[in-house]
Amino acid sequence: MWKSLLKLRPLAERFIKCEVGNGLKASFWNDCWTPLGSLIKCLGDDGPRRLRIPLHSSVAEACSKDFWNLPHPRSENEVILHAHLTTVAPPVPTSSADEFFWTVDGIKLSKFSAPKTWQQCRPREPPKEWSKLIWFSGCVPKHAFNMWIAQLDRMPVRTRLERWGVTDASNCPVCLFGIETRDHILLTCGYSSEIWRYVLPRLESPNVCFMNWTELLSWIKTPVRGNFCTLKKIVTQSTLYHIWRQRNNILHNQVLIPPDTVFRIIDREVRNIFLGRRGRRQHSLVFLAKV
Question: Are 256 and 249 in contact (CB under 8 A)?
Answer without folding.
Answer: yes
